Amino acid sequence: SAVISQKPSRDICQRGTSLTIQCQVDSQVTMMFWYRQQPGQSLTLIATANQGSEATYESGFVIDKFPISRPNLTFSTLTVSNMSPEDSSIYLCSVTVATGRETQYFGPGTRLLVL
Amino acid sequence: SQQGEEDPQALSIQEGENATMNCSYKTSINNLQWYRQNSGRGLVHLILIRSNEREKHSGRLRVTLDTSKKSSSLLITASRAADTASYFCATDAGGGNKLTFGTGTQLKVEL
Fold this sequence. Notes:
The complex is a heterodimer. By secondary structure, chain A is mostly beta strands. Chain A has no helices and eleven strands. In chain A, strands 2, 4, 5, 6, 9, 10 and 11 form a seven-stranded mixed sheet that branches. In chain B, strands 2, 4, 5, 9, 10 and 11 form a six-stranded mixed sheet that branches. By secondary structure, chain B is mainly beta. The termini of chain B are far apart. Chain B is built from no helices and eleven strands. Classes of the chains: A mainly beta, B mainly beta. At the A-B interface, strand 4, strand 5, strand 9 and strand 10 of A face strand 4, strand 5, strand 9 and strand 10 of B.
């Protein structure tokens, strides 16, 4: 498995501002992902964070709104840009630990409220 | 949307009873995973079942998979108050380990 931490754990932000969320893993991992969970809803995949290259975004998500970095095998950031109240969600990162190992492990999440 | 459906949406039982949750999905899959989420926090991985498996056990958990019906069930036996949580199924259809989550079942286990 993997121990995953996220910072911040929660934040309250004003509309029009941006917030960067960090995801740190205690060991090198193969895949890193970012998910969004809107209030009372299930999880939706935002993108796959690729080490050393641009992230791969899912339909409905764009780089200008959700820029992602992954400079190495243990760390990734997700920025929520130009926020609006509709961005209020829990943002979670997840990882797979080895090629061929399909289990995904999730971080504790970042709870974001946009006013 | 490729999101799967889970039923029931909510389930309330007494401690000691069994809880069964069902998940249906739409596409062919490589594997299906079940997760637990307590009070909007991070997800805890419970069990993974591959497309060539029909049943899997882990402690008090029993998962079945019927690929012909595109459905899975999670059975929690002898439930405890600590099992109170939301339970999600998630399918991996192949191509990069990307997961598609079901709508979730909110389980409440009362003393």
